[in-house]
Amino acid sequence: MAHRNEEEGSIGTSMHGVTAKEHVFSFSDQGEDAWSSHSVQSDDPTAKFALPVDSEHKAKVFKPFSFAKPHMRAFHLGWISFFTCFISTFAAAPLVPIIRDNLNLTKTDIGNAGVASVSGAIFSRLAMGAVCDLLGARYGTAFLLMLSAPAVFSMSFVADAGGYLSVRFMIGFCLATFVSCSYWTSVMFTGKIIGLVNGCAGGWGDMGGGVTQLLMPMVFHVIKVAGATPFTAWRIAFFVPGFLQVIMGILVLTLGQDLPDGNLSTLQKKGDVSKDKLTKVFWYALRNYRTYVLFILYGFSMGIEMTINNVISEYFFDRFQLKLHTAGMIAASFGMANFFARPIGGFASDMSARFFGMRGRLWTLWILQTSGGLFCVWLGRATSLPIAILAMMLFSFGVQAACGAIYGVVPFVSRRSLGIISGLTGAGGNFGSGVTQLAFFSSSRFHTADGLSLMGITSMIVTLLVAFIHFPQWGSMFLGPTSDGRKSKEEHYYAAEWTEEEKLKGLHEGSLKFAENSRSERGKKAAPDGTSTPLENENPADV
Amino acid sequence: MSIYKIILASFLICLVIQLSHGATKERLFSDLEKGALEVTAKPSRQGVLDAGIDKLSITWKLSSTAKKQANFTTIKVKLCYAPVSQVDRPWRKTENELFKDKTCPHKIITRAYNKSSQSFKYTLERDIPTGTYFVRAYAVDAKDHEVAFGQSTNEAKTTNVFSVQAISGRHKSLDIASICFSVFSVLALLVFFVNEKRKAKLEQSK
Questions:
Q1: Chain A closest CA to B62's CA: distance in Å?
Q2: Which residue in the set A108, A229, A337 is minimally distant from B127, CB to CB?
Q3: A170 contacts on B by Cβ (under 8 Å)
Q4: A157/B170 touch (CB, cutoff 8 Å), yes or no
Q5: pLDDT, tens digit, for every residue of A416-440?
Q6: Nearest to A386 among B14, B131, B185 (CB)
């Protein structure tokens, strides 16, 4: 979310008035910004980037095998940080059979700890958007990683159910790396490919929930073989995710960069990036009804996914009398499907946008999430193991691709409050997970299998809310864009988040630039309309 | 594509496991001969026993009322959960189907069947969880199928049960290591943060 003021020399600019040329000059000046070692004295500010970029210096292509700074490096640091946090948050789940014996836990204790493990992140994800706006994505990520590492290490102190619950609660805060990661990619990559990029980052990060189901039992086993008793071995095993977090935190701070043009603190002090007011940013997020719809929707895609991460291993173990590591393997497959499922969801969103614009994105989302819910119902009904595994894999694909598709829509809901809305949607995921675990899996009122089916049905009903997401400039699932000539312009929608005084100061320039780039969301109709609108950009006061 | 192969492989493995279980599915606990063995389990001291330290003196012999002793090949002695330790813990549930039954997960000793009285001094293992227990001895035939059993408590599993306190699993060295790494993590973050703020200020003043 760049609040950069790149007025192309128009009058009434701020005292720090920056033209594109000045920008380059301060960069080739040897600041502490060691990242831009390109001392190219060219007039084209985009020449120093390894990837082709747009007017906001966001990358236009996505090259997953590249580590080029700043774009691809940010991508990899972001998703690996998120992956590490998923490993830590769900690290206890595969070890529960040992932990429950050590700490004398009951089913209620285990269920409550599961709810606690995802609840902390509701608040941290809410706050994370604002933190990233204020401190930049690097410090947002590093704070989470390095301040929750002590919580992971403190598993060695836990002696009873209360301690176990508290520690899982505190570890869970680090799931907010999801927000910092998608925030980071949203400032580094352009709108056309953001669905795919966020899908990959989110999906590969979410994979941590699956990898941990294999990793932790393996680490535990190795430590046991080395001579520790089980009740000590599981505590030592937790040092592994703790180390990973600290290492990733240091890597993020040393190798990463907040924005395509540099680090936030540097750019802010130079006056390139203006700090927006937190209250305003929050207000515009809360005023937008789409925020709430996305909050709920994500609760029933990501929320369900996290709930399954906590309950599926035990479910297969009990229902089908499997061995612990077999159940763990199956549980791991659920989480690992994220590797391709979520990116495919993001990609499908981008592809449908190319032909049908935003309407395509919304329909894709609805189809994926509803089919996820359907297969969840089937999973609960399945009485034979092969059918259950098949249902689970289809369910995992549907629900994880839906997560990718939702984040294909999120970047377009607001420009000014992107961080907050991204955080709120993410918080919705955790909220949904807490609610579904509490409602369907924490009491003996019904069997776990019935809980799964009920959760699937609830998900299908809730997903109908997608029909209510309407953009005046692009329409919705069933309605077309508004016929009002003024309101049907992207600039009107995004500029509406700024007051008249702010517009006079030219603070909304970033939004206008984004609006221009977002015209791709009209689908195939983008081409004929594109030519008439550029004139509006040059006169910021005239909106 | 290799992910698909892994999924397919686990499919097939699970199928095979399920099929092989089919043969044992029908054997029920209620079919076993009750009280065929007289089992006693005497704790080494009064009060709650400590896992890894305290011992149980276990004896078992053929009961006078036993009928199927001709089939007995091996005696499997196990540590079992009393009902109070099974409350709200479905992973310790007592089921009639023997292969599903999770009442007695902890093996104590396995010995060939001998008509005369047998005894064993068992030190409680360090992975025994906190709970209330009794001892049960299963008489197993040559096909490794249970045929009879005897236990140190009554049928309702209320008398002669003893309590065990598990080890905590905590160690001072672990605690110290945990604190050290936590402090390092927080300090490293602060150092980076302060450093960068300082450099940014220098940049501005230039």
A1: 33
A2: A229
A3: none
A4: yes
A5: 887 778 888 888 999 999 999 988 8
A6: B14
Tens-place pLDDT, residues A331-368: 899 989 988 998 889 889 989 988 988 999 999 999 99
The nearest alpha carbon in chain A to B166 belongs to A102
Instruction: Tell me the CA distances in angstroms from A6 to A22, A31, A272, A447, A504, one per residue in order.
Output: 10, 21, 8, 59, 14
> If residue B134 lies in a helix (H) or strand (E), which one and from where to where?
strand B131-140
CA-based nearest distance A117→chain B, Å: 20
Chain A residues with beta carbon closer than 8 angstroms to that of B168:
102, 159, 231
Q: Cβ B170–A239 below 8 Å, yes or no?
A: no
Q: At what angle do helices B172-205 and A239-255 cross, to 10 degrees?
A: 10
Question: How far is Cα A530 from Cα A493, in angstroms, rounded to an integer?
Answer: 16
B126: nearest CA in chain A? Answer: A229
Q: Name the token pair of B181.
A: 């790494």
Tokens encoding A221? 């086993």
* Inter-chain residue contact B186 with A234, CB threshold 8 Å: no
Q: Is it true that the peptide bond before A70 is cis, omega within 30 degrees of 0?
A: yes
Q: What phi-psi label fits residue A321: left (phi over 0), alpha (psi between -120 and 50 degrees) or beta?
A: left
Contact between A321 and B100 under an 8 Å Cβ cutoff? The reply is: yes
B148 beta partners: B33, B139
For chain B, where are the alpha helices, taking DSSP H only? 2-21, 172-205
Q: What does the alpha-carbon distance between residue A118 and residue A284 come to, in Å, rounded to a whole number? A: 27
Collapsing DSSP states into helix, strand and coil, what is residue A271?
A: coil
Residues of chain A positioned with their CB less than 8 A from the CB of B177? 153, 156, 239
- A321 contacts B100? CB cut-off 8 A: yes
Tell me which amino acid residue B201 is.
Answer: K
Q: Do the beta carbons of residue B119 and residue B38 sit within 8 Å?
A: no
**H or E segment and range at residue B118:** strand B118-123
Series of mean pLDDT values for 10-residue runs along chain B (206 residues)? 70 61 68 88 92 92 85 92 90 87 92 90 92 93 90 90 92 95 96 89 78
